[in-house]
Design goal:
FMN, membrane, TIM Barrel, alpha/beta, DHO_dehydrogenase, globular, 13 strands, three-stranded antiparallel sheet, 13 helices
């Protein structure tokens, strides 16, 4: 981290975590955060994901820019792709505060935001108005907490977002909306995906659609989910969302409810990623997310079966320069080991799945 990043981190860590998050968004919008200006790329890092050209395989996970307010700066922050949201059909405030906790000793975060956002119409309008560039920008889509038909909510947001976003992510794995994870069951998920794909196709646009899964699935549920993904026409998967487990945490906030992300999620999410990769048998690409905070961890995700990776929680502890550092580190290691992203993907899936 640069001295500027270290000073900014120290100042933000004096504040309530949610207030610090909001101030970081404002700082990005005002141009106060030093950024690389563009994504680092090379012949080894440039890749494709479900037909999208990416300058590098290091993306930003959903949840940071919930309302697509700083898409421009984020595409200049070194990421090879960016995901914003989640967006629901109607605006909603989310869960009561406090709902974001730093577990500094564990280099982790617990959140129970509950899809707080300004609504799909406002978010999609911002996405549609943005200048298009080499860094794809996707939208994570969700359902309103009080919806009587959550599957219909996902389809509605997809219809609004299809022409505005470069990809869409069906988020049925957030632990912070009651009973949302029930939609990961085979029958419910298959119907939900069909509705989203039909809504996307009816819009006249065809951005790729991914499904984001939970890390807390047992083997039978994971196998069932993978079978649905293979047969559904979906373009890929994201593994994984946050976890409800709390094993081995040292922080006083460990008992807070919500989804845990950051370093403690790494091994669990990577194991689920590897098992999903084996179930899919190379039929669909996987975005690996959960606990990535270094070149070695990004490398391990790709070895376990990820085509590309996403980061988020580690940015809180290491600053926005992390994306550029990981991308450059991956390039150097690919060169030193005389390999490629394609050859690396899944090369250690069996070991990580064990």
């Amino acid at each position: 981290m640069s001295l500027i990043e270290q000073a900014g981190r120290a100042a933000l860590f004096r504040l309530d975590p949610e207030r610090a998050h909001d101030l970081s968004i404002r700082a990005l919008a005002m141009g106060l955060v030093p950024l690389p200006g563009r994504a680092f790329t090379s012949e080894l890092l440039a890749t494709t994901l479900a037909g999208m050209a990416l300058p590098n395989p290091v993306g930003l996970a959903a949840g940071y820019d919930k309302n697509a307010r700083v898409v421009g700066p984020l595409t200049r922050a070194g990421f090879g792709f960016v995901e914003v949201g989640a967006a629901t059909p109607r605006p909603q405030p989310g869960n009561p505060k406090p709902r974001l906790f730093r577990l500094t000793e564990d280099r982790a975060i617990i959140n129970r935001f509950g899809f707080n956002n300004e609504g799909a119409e406002a978010i999609c309008a911002r996405l549609a108005a943005r200048p298009r560039g080499p860094v794809p920008v996707g939208l994570n889509i969700g359902a309103n907490k009080d919806s009587a038909d959550r599957a219909a909510d996902f389809a509605h947001v997809a219809s609004l977002a299809a022409g505005a976003a470069d990809f869409l992510t069906i988020n049925v794995s957030s632990p912070n909306t009651e009973k949302l994870r029930d939609l990961q069951g085979a029958r419910a998920l298959a119907a939900l995906i069909r509705g989203v794909l039909d809504a996307r196709d009816a819009s006249g646009a065809r951005p790729p659609v991914f499904v984001k899964i939970a890390p807390d699935l047992d083997e039978a549920a994971l196998a069932e989910l993978a079978a649905v993904l293979r047969d559904s026409g979906i373009d890929g998967a994201i593994a994984t969302n946050t976890t409800l487990t709390r094993d081995g945490l040292a922080s006083r906030h460990a008992s807070e409810t919500g989804g845990l992300s950051g370093a403690p999620l790494f091994r669990l999410s990577t194991r689920i990623l590897a098992r999903l990769y084996r179930h899919l048998d190379g039929k669909l690409p996987i975005i690996g997310v959960g606990g990535v905070g270094s070149v070695d961890e990004a490398w391990a995700k790709i070895e376990a079966g990820a085509s590309v990776v996403q980061i988020y929680s580690a940015l809180i502890y290491q600053g926005f320069s992390l994306a550029d550092r990981i991308a450059r580190g991956l390039d150097a290691r690919l060169r030193s080991e005389n390999t490629t992203l394609a050859a690396l993907t899944g090369s250690a899936a069996d070991r990580w799945a064990a």
